[in-house]
Design brief:
single chain, 371 residues, alpha/beta, seven-stranded mixed sheet, six-stranded mixed sheet, 8 helices, 29% strand
């Protein structure tokens, strides 16, 4: 092991500061760009190395005191030592850089990042783990648990659930704690930023359209907010419980389908593009053979499969809205979709303050040759 003095030049995607020694990148957690630090090199590869912070010799003006006593040991938060405005600047740059590096995109029309109104006490659910009476989260870079009495980025209701769990001496396992006792379907973890995300999409989607396809629709969070802009709405999700929620009190023009999103998108394409309409067509009633004018996709962190991308290209919507929780897979998918769509804007959102997570919305328009 050896100690090196480094000037932190940048913050890498994931939250670690980057310094260089004779051209080799050395990654140091809990540092800030512009700082001069001493770090102990623990893992060394040919082109990069991993280190641990020993001392901050010249501190950034953006350095603040973390509010969580577990910070630095818990594997959840990585930015509590950085003031919030600088966290937002870091995430905006990281989103842009990932799109440039992986997506090979130039002149990206980046919008300002949408901040979270709450920097702490925003999470409406967490998953804690129990092993040998230790109740909490995994330690940083480890499969060992750290015992957590209270999580400062979680709301009071979730922390009351945590206190209740701790008082029950639970069995080993995983426990999801929620602020609401509603049905266990997927929803965004930060209510205020989720509302901002929905409002952004409502603003991006033009009015007076025929058909919206909302893929990975969950309980219809986006679709139901857009009903007044479409003659018909089709939502697709694999989660049958979320689809059941979406169907409750659904208007006549809302259709929600439980199934594999990739297969359902391909089926929609078959209905609209390949089949003649007829009275015996089992899908003509379900989709009414209206060409989709807007598609919204909100896939998991793995992004869109190649088949899903191809189905979207074949459907050729005028407007495509891509909601992503992983800028890397968003960049990969945009690289492929960019052949048929122009990127109108990319808007990052800070759904998870204090963490390295970045949400983003890409607004795409069909090229004339693709419409």
């Amino acid at each position: 092991m050896r100690i090196v003095d480094l000037k932190i030049e940048d913050i890498a995607f994931g939250g670690k500061g980057v310094g260089r020694e004779q051209g080799k990148a050395i990654f140091v957690p809990y540092t800030i760009d512009g700082e001069l630090v001493s770090a102990e090199v623990l893992r060394e590869k040919k082109q990069f190395a991993g280190a641990e912070l020993v001392e901050v010799k010249e501190s950034s003006p953006h350095r603040v005191s973390p509010e969580c006593p577990y910070f630095g040991h818990c594997g959840g938060c990585v930015y509590q030592h950085i003031d919030y405005e600088h966290q937002l600047a870091i995430k905006w740059l990281q989103a842009r850089n990932v799109l440039q590096r992986i997506g090979k995109l130039k002149d990206i029309p980046m919008r300002p990042i949408i901040p979270s109104p709450k920097q702490y006490e925003y999470r409406n659910r967490i998953t804690v783990h129990v092993q040998d009476r230790v109740i909490g989260f995994f330690r940083r870079d480890s499969h060992r648990l750290i015992d957590i009495e209270r999580c400062p980025i979680s709301c009071d209701e979730v922390n009351r659930e945590l206190a209740d769990l701790r008082g029950r001496d639970p069995r080993d396992g995983h426990y999801t704690l929620r602020a609401s006792s509603s049905r266990r379907v997927f929803s965004q973890t930060n209510n205020e930023v989720a509302d901002a995300l929905r409002d952004l999409i409502v603003d991006l989607v033009p009015p007076n359209q025929d058909l919206l396809i909302d893929a990975y629709c969950g309980a219809g969070f986006f679709a139901k907010a857009l009903l007044n802009k479409f003659a018909r709405v089709v939502g697709i999700d694999w989660d049958k419980f979320a689809i059941a929620d979406a169907k409750e009190n659904a208007a006549e023009k809302e259709i929600y389908v439980a199934g594999d999103v990739e297969e359902e998108l391909q089926q929609v394409g078959a209905v609209h593009l390949n089949r003649p309409s007829g009275a015996n067509d089992p899908d003509s009633g379900r989709f009414k053979r209206i060409a989709p004018s807007t598609i919204i996709v909100d896939p998991p962190a793995t992004g869109l499969s190649a088949n899903a991308r191809n189905a979207i290209v074949n459907l050729a919507p005028t407007t495509l809205i891509y909601v992503s929780c992983n800028p890397a897979t968003l960049a990969r998918d945009l690289k492929e979709l960019h052949e048929k769509f122009t990127i109108d804007s990319i808007t990052p959102l800070d759904m998870f303050p204090q963490t390295a997570e970045i949400e983003a919305v890409a607004h795409l328009q069909a090229m004339p040759s693709a419409s």
